[in-house]
Every structure is written in C-alpha cells, then in structure tokens.
Sequence to fold (792 residues):
Amino acid sequence: AYASTAFWPALVAFGVVLAMLARFAGASRACCLMASAAFLVGGARATLCLALHEQQQADVRDWISGPKRCAASGVVQTSPAITGDTLGFTAQLTDLDCEGKKRSGPLSARLYGSELGSVARGDRFFALLQLAVPQVFHNGELQDPGPSQVRQGVVLSGSVLSLETTERGAVLSSGIDRLRAHARERIDATFSPAAVGMAEALVLGTGDLSDDDAEAFRQSGLAHLLAVSGTHLVFAVLGLLRFVRFYLLRVQALSLRVEVERVVAAIGVGLAPLYADFAGGSGSAWRAAWMLSAALLVKALGRKPLIGRALAASILMGVLFDAMVAYDISFLLSLAATAGLLTLGKRWNEYLGSAGSRVVQFLQTAALATLSSMVPCIPLLALLSPDLSWASIGANVIAAPLGEAVALPLCLLHGIAEFFRPLELGIARVASGALIVIDQIAHASAEVKWMRTSVPLPSAWQLALLVAGGTGAFVLLARAKYRPALCFACAAVMVLGGLEWAQRLYGTPHDLLRITAVDVGQGDSTLIDLPRGQLMLIDGGGIVGSTIDPGRRVLEPLLRARRRERIDVMVLSHPHPDHFLGLLRIAQRFKVTELWDTGQGEAKGAGPQYAQLLASLRQQGTRIRRPNELCGSRLVSGATIQVLAPCPHFTEGRGANDNSFVLRISYGALSALLVGDAEHAEEQELLERGGNLEARFLKVGHHGSRTSSSPEFLAAVAPKYASISCGVRNSFGHPHAVTLDHLHAQGAQILRLDRTGSVQWQTDGVDEALQASSLRENPLWRAATSLLSAGG
Fold:
C-alpha cells in the first residue's frame, strides 16, 4: 500500500525491499527496479494528494465554521444513488452564499435529499442547501480517514432543501444515469418488495438493504453475490458479447470478410468499462473491467491473452486513475480474491484431482473456489468485521450457483424485457424467488454461531507483513516452487506472531496511566488504561438523529485494535444520548464488569435507549453502582480514583449536566480530571467543598460550552493540557470563544478533537507524554505541506 507513505514511512521502505527481494523469485532486475520506482513515485503522489486535500479542507472548515444554510449553483459529478427514500450524489458547487459568507468555488460536496426528482451527471442546478464539513473520526490506532476523503474528493456535505435543474446534461454519463434510474423504476414496479433491495444491489451496485439483511449477508460471506463483483461483471459482459457474436455471425457480408471473434473482442474493450459505470462503478467493478478490457484488447489484436498480465494491467489502470486506490477496500478484495483463484485454487484443484461423480466434482470445485478466494481476503475482511464464519464456505457452495446461474442472468434479462410486459413480470417473479432463497440461506448461515471465529483488527505492520508474505508465497506458488513457498509462509506466520504479541502488550500497558480522549464527533468518550491492566470506558458518544453509531464505528474497532475483550469499569457520566448511545453496541459485544451510573436517568427517565442499555448490562450480570457507594477515594488497578461529584447522590432539581460524574484519577505525582458535562453550578459546588482539584490533564466540561470552565474553576485545576470533545458539524458553536479565552489565560494547551483527532495522555507517575492522532511526523509529509504552503 504505497499510499501509506504519508503515515508509515517505514512501511514504504519495507515495500521497496520486498520489490527487490522479488529478484529471488525469478523477476528480472529491470522489473524489480521499475517496481521500486513505481512504489516510491506512487507514495509521493499519494502524499501530495493527501496534503492538498487536508489543506483545502482546513481552509473550508475555517470559512464555513459550522453548519450553514447556503445558496449555490452546481453540476452533478457522480451517479446518484438511492438509499431508502434518500437520493445522494456528489456535486461541484460554485457561487456559494452561506448566511452572508460568500465563496466563488469550485468546492466538491456530497448532497442528500428525499424529493429531488431525476438528476444525472452533467446536470446543472441551483439549490438551497444545509452544508457543513463532513464528520469523520480521526483516531490514531484506527485507519486514517484521510485517504478515503481524498478518494471521495468532497470537502462539504449536507442536505438539499430545494433544487432546480437549470440545464440537463448531454454527455454519455448523463445517459447512463438516466438508464440506471429507469432500471430502478422497473425493478421497483415488478419485483417482490422483499427482493427489490437485493435486485437493485445486483444490477445497479446500490446498498439499499435492511440492516438485518446487510448483516446476514456480511456474516454469511455472501455479500459478494449482491455486489457488482469481478465475476458478476465478466459474466454480464461476456454474456452480452455472446449475443453480439450470435448476430454478427449471421451477417454474411461481415463474417466472410473479417474474423468475427476479433470484432466482438474489440466491441468488448469499450463495453466492459461502460457496464462497470452503469453498475455503480465500484472499485471491484472497475478492476474487473480493466482486466477484461486488457484481455479482450489482446484478443482483438489477434494474440492470446495471459491472465496474469491482464490482472497486472487492471492494477496499473487503477493506480493511474486513483492515487488512493490502495485504500479502496472493494478494489483490494477483488484483487486478493482473483489472485487466490489464480494461484491457490488452481494448485488445490491439481493436487486433489477430479475423482468421484459429477456432483462430487462440482461440490469440490465450488468449495475450493470459495476457500481459495476467501483466504487472501481474510486480512481485509478483518478490517470490516470482528469475526468470520466458516459456514460461509457451505453457504457459498449452495447459494453461489443459484445467484450466478439464476438470479444474475434473470436480473440482467429483466432490463431488456420491458418491450413485453408479461415476460418482464415473469422474469421478475422468478428472479425474486431466487433472491429470497439466497436471503434465507444468508440468514440461516449467519445464525450458525459456533462456526464463527473472532479475528483481531490487524495493525499497519501486520497488514504490511501479510501483504509481503502473501505476495511472496503466491509468486512462488505460481512458479511451482512449493517448498520455498511453504518456508516463506511459515516465516511470515512466525513474524506475525511476534507482531501480535507486541500489539497485545501495547493494548494493555502496565505501570502506565494512559488516557485516550476518543474522537466520536459531537459527543464524549474516554478510554482509560489503568497501571495494572484494567480498562475504564467513560461514555460512548452518540449522534442524535443520525444512523452513525460511534460504538460500532469507533469504540468497537478501537477495543479490537487493543485486543481488549472486557471493560472492567464502564462509566456513564450522565444520561444524555451524546454520551450513552455508543455504549449500546459495547454492552452487546463486550463483557462489562461494572457500570457506574448517577441513577438520575433511571429515576427521572432518559428514553428507551438508556433503558435498553441498563437491561442489556443487567442481563450479562454487570454490577451497577451508584454515587452513594462510589463517592470518595479508592485504589483501582494501581491508580487512585476519586469520585468528587455528584455526592452522595444526584441533586434534585438540577439537569443531568450539573449531575455529571466528576472523576480525578492519579498515578504517582500526576493527575487527570474528567468532568463530564459539568456546568457552573457543579463547578461552584466543587470549589466550595474544597479539596484538591489540580490536574495536568483536563477533559473540558460540556464540549467547551460557555456554561462550563469558569476562570475560578480553571485556576483551581491549573491544567497543562485541556481536551475538548466536539464535532465539526455541531450547531451549538462549541467550543465557545469565551471558554477558549479562559483556557488560554490559564496557559493550557488546547486540544480540540475536531482539529486534532483523538489525543492520548500518559504518565508513569513522574513523566508525561501527549500524542495527537492527526499529526504527520515524517520528512516527506513535511516537505509536501511546506511545498503547498509556499505555493499558496
């Protein structure tokens, strides 16, 4: 992954060394040197793209400073996609006026709306929009969202309040989008409601499945059947080419003069990318399209195509068109699966032979194809899911033929059967039946819990090693060097074990107090590693009115990255959704020993999600503790934890913010103060009680609101570092200028998580260290940013 240059320069050196080591696998010296040069050039290109995008995003963030209502002109850039009732597309905006703040543009934005009519690429429009900078989560131990943002190319996102099309697009992509919209209408009109989402995913590459169906297909390993994968694209394009060949052979004037096979291949060179575009343009579809186009081009020129070279050509095209293609998970999955089929699948079939009946041979071939394509994908799948199911092999053996031989051809035929409505309806009904059966197989496979295997989230170095080991082993296998391939793979596994041991040591530090202020947007969450290995989680974030779950998107991957399976102490500072919604997922997926809760939510009512959280924890036997048994000082896993408020219980008549848990955690001579959303009333109460509030690290109250962090309170705490958990899209204006002024006056280093990403403060009781996730610390990155700054 050459794009890792910006983040892990050591990995780039690792990749270059790998390219040079390929010399021992039989590659020529010139080939190895070219691979190393391409790797370095690609890394430099990716770094510059990242630096340029981050510079533009910071500029736009400072300009718009929070959600704004805007008027703008624009041009549709990407094919519109429907999820539920919402249409989404990317547009290039010009002449923006955002509540008096004007900008000529152009700026790229991702827009969403429910009643936009029919729009297509190339359409020009005038719209009223609600815009802000996209909310992404920067957490240092997880994959950086920067490359994904660069690939999307957007610096703004928001909803469409009204849109008027001023000029229809007249380019090829406009026509493709209108064909897509028409195909969607016919699917909605003729397919069974239970199969509509699956049919649209299969034909148009959309992801409009229910949450239950999407989870079932993911857990069963059948998600590829509803994606425009490489197999899907090759099947569809070659099927269309067979029809073309059938008719051209019957045109005697043509078939007697030219070789029809070469003419058909030439037609396919252009047809493959057109179909990839029509089917949603995923990374896997484009990779397969370039691979198929390369093979057909060679065939059109009268030569025999080589699969390995066609695969290499598809990678080259991906790299040329997208500097961040190494971060396109669908592209990488497609590449890994294809490599597995060409190496492992071929060798395993040769080794096992073809004994037995035709049924046995079919089952053997199907199982080996599934296994050989799945094995190289496991590290990538580990990035997406906390577990893998071996039941997916059986599910694929049963469902794959039904999907590829029945559902897919019928769905494709449905698109050209509109001329005869009874035929169209008949095809839709049979295809619906096949898709519903596949859905039932997916759900049945997903319910086989005992065949699931938990997989840790691979670190950057582990991914690099897996890529290196896998590449080396596949190259040796392709050259029939079985013993060297086995030795190479065994050596990689041994080193991988060492890296896993190091990762577990990092995830559970000892003799250190480590506090991680997690970036969960406009919410709050803090992970605390205690000196003797226990783990505290204070709050879990939550975005009210959004489908984004920080528990699933941030906290669960973060705990997986640290190899944590249990929360020793979960603390809910107060019962507000932006603090507890993310805890629901954690309570379902992890063992929680204790919950510290103020009790106000249960006494006064805090909504169904809060009640669900308590019920889930009680069901697993979690001990729930209230302030009356927590107030005071105690030694927990080597650290001194003082519960300062609300003591002895929550105060009647006060809101939840001013009844927040206030915790002071000390190790050796240094302390941290975590105050939830405490406001002036609770701060004043703490001051009046006296006692030591001094702390080197302060989790600023209420997201930096003016109602918290009074000068008197900050003077008593005297923090060196002050972290503020707030989101780039928050409509409250957090953090408020007056709070920032108070912190500056106190001399604290302000750490805004919307700017720095997660921050990590740690101490051994004497010395301390701080790390922010968004800092780029390598010479190439500094050179790129300096170059861009010098260029304006």
In short: The radius of gyration is 29 Å. Confidence is low (pLDDT under 50) at residues 1-6. The first strand starts at residue 68 and ends at 76.
